[in-house]
């Protein structure tokens, strides 16, 4: 397991420029938070890592191997090692929760039906959803769906996990459970996590490092203390949640 | 001058938009072909689609076909009566149902029910990031989502047309007996004696072509949906219109080539 490096990433959608030369390094085993306003380009940035979006310019390295602009099929081995939990839970509506979690196991691991089922239940247990396995995703609110999406992302025991707003829409107790799980993955399984979040309690609870994007640029990369003690008025406005300040909304 | 410029701009925009859609369908066809060798199909997803596409369409196809057969007999009934050509009733109804009306009517019903549903499902998956979630799980959306749907639509439209043809003939025979007093045995005799096997297979070739066209078009518009709920509505609309046009264009060419 190695570092994740984003080098001078530029991305625009038509005339809308989202990323303007972002440089970022994520060390192995870290819980790395990417924060910033809605529309700052956080999700766009992390989607580059697994090839869901191609950069207009710049390079991305995973384990010192360049993964920029690979062919779709060449990203599959990377995606097995680097899972992603989307902002919307993205569970498949036509399947039960258990079937959702079983899908990647069924497609990628050579196990028999009982083993697949047992592993899926084990992953659902991690997020406290094992008793709802035979129910459909549509029966649940976004918070519970998100927990199942986390279970599904962890099925292949990834080395890297991208969490896109994992605690948004979740009750405080479940959010604390998700935070604990992310920390546990880093501390006991050396899983590197990139977490996109606006949740200050999560950010200042479990982050090893924090990076803040503003207007498509990285304005700070540091520890929790660096962020608490900085004089940068934009960062202070953001982490204190003040409506007035230099940050343009 | 401004008017000419506006007209040219409109024509150009429409042309580019159509080219974009046709190009997308050609690329999707190529992806489908690539996934055929060796065949890549997900078992549970294929069974789910065969059931959803075929079994769930069965009642509406039976009702449509039964009425189509009856209408064919009613339409030809006045001429049959006038000329006393009761022995030709089975041939008249069977020939038109097997070669033309059966595949077209069932194809259009299938497009409205299955094609629209398919575009809506894929479109919703697309705009809610479920397709990207599949990619993120290292699962090819073409192999997992499109291939089972294409197979299910081709196979099931073929089978539904076979069942629909039979049902239409039964509907025709029953209507002939009740309205015209033509014995069902005479109706059957007329079919057996005058209808050729190629009349039946001609309709089945159309069924396979229509099934593939509906699958390709509905998957194409579904997989390229953007713009949330409004985009899904637009995609379904475009899919149904394009499928209907494709059915008639294919029908024309297949009929012309067989003539």
Question: Can you offer a commentary on this structure?
Answer:
In chain A, strand 4 and strand 5 form a beta hairpin. Chain A contains nine helices and ten strands. Chain A starts with a strand and ends in a 9-residue tail after the last helix. Chain A has a domain of 170 residues: P-loop containing nucleotide triphosphate hydrolases (Rossmann fold, 3-Layer(aba) Sandwich). Chain A has a six-stranded mixed beta sheet. In chain A, strands 2-1-4-5 form a four-stranded antiparallel beta sheet, with no helix packed on it. The longest helix of chain A has 18 residues. The mean pLDDT of chain A is 91. Chain A is 36% helix and 24% strand. Chain A has 249 residues and is α/β, with parallel strands linked by helices. Chain B has 259 residues and is an all-alpha fold. Chain B has one domain. Chain B is built from nine helices and no strands. The longest helix of chain B has 40 residues. The chains are: A alpha/beta (249), B mainly alpha (259).
What is the topological layout?
The complex is a heterodimer of chains A (249) and B (259).
Chain A: E1 4-13, E2 16-26, E3 31-36, H1 42-47, E4 57-62, E5 65-66, H2 76-81, E6 82-85, H3 97-108, H4 113-126, H5 142-153, E7 160-164, H6 172-189, E8 192-196, H7 200-206, E9 209-214, E10 217-222, H8 224-229, H9 233-240
Parallel strand pairs in A: 3-8, 3-9, 6-7, 7-8
Antiparallel strand pairs in A: 1-2, 1-4, 4-5, 9-10
Helix pairs in contact in A: 3-4, 3-5, 4-5
Chain B: H1 2-34, H2 43-53, H3 58-83, H4 89-127, H5 130-136, H6 141-180, H7 184-194, H8 197-223, H9 228-258
Helix pairs in contact in B: 1-8, 2-6, 3-4, 3-6, 4-6, 4-7, 4-8, 4-9, 6-8, 8-9
């Amino acid at each position: 397991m190695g570092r994740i490096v984003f080098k001078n990433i530029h991305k625009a959608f038509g005339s809308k420029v989202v990323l303007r030369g972002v440089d970022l390094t994520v060390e192995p085993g870290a819980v790395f938070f990417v924060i910033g306003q809605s529309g700052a380009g956080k999700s766009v940035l992390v989607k580059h890592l697994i090839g869901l979006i191609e950069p207009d310019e710049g390079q991305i390295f995973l384990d010192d191997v360049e993964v920029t602009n690979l062919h779709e099929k060449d990203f599959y081995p990377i995606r097995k090692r680097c899972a992603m939990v989307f902002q919307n839970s993205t569970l498949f509506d036509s399947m039960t929760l258990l079937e959702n979690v079983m899908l990647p196991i069924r497609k990628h691991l050579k196990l028999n039906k009982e083993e697949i089922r047992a592993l899926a239940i084990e992953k659902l247990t991690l997020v406290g959803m094992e008793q709802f396995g035979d129910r459909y995703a549509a029966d649940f609110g976004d918070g519970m769906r998100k927990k199942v999406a986390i279970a599904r992302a962890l099925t292949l025991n990834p080395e890297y996990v991208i969490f896109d707003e994992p605690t948004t829409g979740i009750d405080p107790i479940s959010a604390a459970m998700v935070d604990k799980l992310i920390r546990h993955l880093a501390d006991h399984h050396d899983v590197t996590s990139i977490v996109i979040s606006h949740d200050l309690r999560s950010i200042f609870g479990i982050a090893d490092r924090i990076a803040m994007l503003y207007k498509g640029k990285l304005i700070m990369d540091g520890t929790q203390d660096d962020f608490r003690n900085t004089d940068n008025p934009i960062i202070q406005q953001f982490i204190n949640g003040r409506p007035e300040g230099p940050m343009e909304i | 001058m401004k008017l000419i410029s506006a007209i040219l701009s409109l024509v150009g925009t429409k042309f580019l938009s159509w080219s974009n859609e046709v190009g997308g369908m050609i690329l999707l066809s190529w992806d489908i072909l690539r996934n055929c060798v060796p065949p890549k199909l997900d078992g549970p997803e294929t069974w789910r689609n065969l059931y959803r596409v075929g079994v769930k369409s069965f009642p509406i196809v039976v009702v449509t076909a039964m009425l189509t057969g009856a209408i064919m007999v009613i339409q030809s009934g006045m001429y049959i009566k006038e000329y006393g050509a009761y022995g030709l009733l089975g041939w008249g109804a069977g020939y038109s149902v097997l070669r033309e009306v059966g595949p077209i009517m069932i194809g259009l019903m299938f497009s409205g029910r299955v094609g629209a549903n398919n575009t809506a499902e894929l479109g919703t998956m697309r705009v809610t990031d479920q397709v990207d979630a599949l990619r993120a799980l290292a699962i090819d959306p073409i192999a997992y989502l499109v291939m089972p749907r294409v197979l299910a639509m081709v196979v099931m439209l073929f089978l539904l047309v076979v069942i629909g043809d039979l049902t239409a003939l039964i509907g025709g025979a029953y209507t002939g007996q009740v309205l015209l007093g033509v014995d069902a045995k005479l109706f059957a005799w007329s079919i057996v004696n005058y209808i050729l096997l190629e009349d039946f297979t001609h309709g089945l070739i159309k069924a396979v072509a229509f099934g593939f066209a509906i699958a390709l078009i509905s998957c194409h518009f579904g997989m390229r949906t953007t713009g949330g709920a409004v985009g899904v509505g637009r995609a379904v609309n475009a899919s149904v219109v394009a499928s209907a046009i494709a059915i008639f264009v294919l029908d024309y060419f297949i009929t012309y080539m067989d003539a």
